[in-house]
Amino acid sequence: MNYPCTLAKCAATNSALSLILRRILTPPSVRMSASTAESVLKSKRALRSRVRKALKAMYPIQRSCEDEAIQSIVLNSPWFKSSRALCAYISCSSLREVDTSRILSETLRMPAKDDSTKVAKRLYVPRVEDKNSHMRMLHISSMDDLIANSMDILEPAPVDANGQEREDVLQANDPVDLLLLPGLAFDRSGRRLGRGGGYYDVFLSRYQELARGRSWKQPLLVALSYSVQIMNEEFIPVTPTDVPIDALVHPGGVIPISSAAAERLG
Ligand SMILES: Nc1nc2c(c(=O)[nH]1)N(C=O)[C@@H](CNc1ccc(C(=O)N[C@@H](CCC(=O)O)C(=O)O)cc1)CN2
Ligand SMILES: Nc1ncnc2c1ncn2[C@@H]1O[C@H](COP(=O)(O)OP(=O)(O)OP(=O)(O)O)[C@@H](O)[C@H]1O
After folding, report:
1. What integer pLDDT is reported at residue 257 of this predicted model?
2. Residue nearest ligand 2's atom 7 by CA
3. Element (H, E) at 128
4. CA of 198 to the centre of ligand 1 (A)
5. Which of 133, 179, 182, 215: disulfide with 198, CB 3.0–4.6 Å?
């Protein structure tokens, strides 16, 4: 019996198959030559490892100051206050991600009946479905809806406590107006480097296609970034499938990038 070896072969076959499938499904307009793709992949890997080190080197006090500043900027902004439905990540402190806990609890808090300045919001959070860059955004109504996955990131189970399937944002009747994105590196021109799974890029391109098909306004893509994660322009390597962000929130403020952001962020 040789289970681990068989499993390893299966995994290798699966990943080869998924590469072939991606090749077939990716239109020629977004393909790159094999050698360019390989060199971009290498530079992405090198940059990820550099940023991970920089994040690990941050003093905890610096991190918590930046977490507070970034969350306050989001919570006090008119574009967050007026949003009715959003997707946000559940931050993972061991990955040194910008904390979203205050934003999430504020999003889930129902407005007081006599408070006309706040609107009730619908919240969708990520759930990884498989290793082929497949992630869904599922509706939650409480932080108690979350359990830790194998990567130690909190995520919702597909069904709620009453046995009801959670709503998938791609199946919802109404659009989301805002997405709060994690990542490893960002720049002022809208480039974003993720952790390498392709989960967000695949999800974002699907959501944008859905919004186009339904003639919905595209949601604002806002990334949250510590100071050390902001790179000089053109430094982050990009491939045609990388989805650009609309705005960047860092401890010093908001950087509007796209024209949609300039309009909505003022
Ligand atoms: N909070 C949060 N949730 C998320 C994401 C995310 O980036 N942050 N994702 C966004 O995709 C998806 C999960 N993807 C993930 C991809 C890699 C790792 C991770 O642990 N990466 C390690 C390196 C692992 C390795 O290379 O061996 C790391 O980055 O240090 C975690 C989640 C969905 N949920
Ligand atoms: N829209 C897409 N369709 C098919 N494959 C994609 C798409 N977007 C990304 N990928 C693939 O996913 C893999 C990882 O991509 P990349 O390194 O850009 O991810 P990332 O931006 O670091 O991660 P994430 O998007 O999860 O934050 C690559 O093999 C890439 O080709």
Report:
1. 97
2. 202
3. strand 122-130
4. 10
5. 133
* Residue 96 in tokens: 């040194």
Residue whose Cα lies nearest atom 29 of ligand 1: it is 195
Q: How far apart are CA 137 and CA 256, in angstroms?
A: 25
Other CB atoms within 10 Å distance of the CB of residue 104: 22
**CB environment 182-200: b (16+ within 10 A), e (fewer):** bbbbbbeebbbbbeeebbb
pLDDT tens digits for 142-189?
A: 999 999 998 899 999 999 989 999 999 999 999 999 999 999 999 999
Lowest mean pLDDT among 49-53, 66-70, 123-127, 140-144: 140-144
Helix (H) or strand (E) holding 204: helix 199-213
Give long-range contacts, CB 8 A cutoff, 24+ apart: 56-59. Answer: 56/96, 58/96, 58/226, 58/228
Tell me which residues have their CB closer than 6 angstroms to ligand 2: 22, 26, 44, 133, 183, 193-202, 205, 239, 241-242
H or E element, residue 122: strand 122-130
Q: Among 92, 110, 132, 119, which Cα is nearest to 178's? A: 119
**ipTM of the complex as predicted:** 0.97
Best residue among 45, 50, 55, 95 to mutate for probing ligand 1, ranked by most atoms within 8 Å of CB: 95
Residue 231, C-beta contacts closer than 8 angstroms, at least 6 positions apart: 47, 185, 186, 187, 191
242 CA: nearest ligand 2 atom: 18
First-residue to last-residue Cα distance in the chain: 64
Q: 200 C-alpha vs ligand 1 centroid, how far in Å?
A: 10
The CB-side HSE value for 56 (13 A sphere, CA atoms) comes to: 7
